[in-house]
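Risk register update: the risk of archive-format incompatibility is retired. Evidence:
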Amino acid sequence: MTLLRRLSRSTAFRTIVVVLVLALAWQVYLTVRAPGRIAPELAVAVEEGQPLRVSVALDFPPERFHSLKLQSYGHVMGVEDNRIHLRSVRPESVAALAKIYWVDRLELYEDDAG
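Archived output:
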């Protein structure tokens, strides 16, 4: 009996395969959904290649965890309602931000002063 045939009959192997397929499907879903989360104005600004100010909209009030997680993409300027405002976001980080499952929308941030 070949090794592959023996492995395919193993419950542990089947479980590992199912988990890997589900993880891959989840990553594909996040990748496909990501471009729809980026506002058109932000997509244009990303093409310019300069650091950006980004408003990250969530479907819920952000907690400390969310602010800390987003600090790896830019400096947190503040939190307002269900939004976290970031500055100095690298253009290549915008796509990564859009793949975070709890991020609802990414928009270009323009405060009232500027």
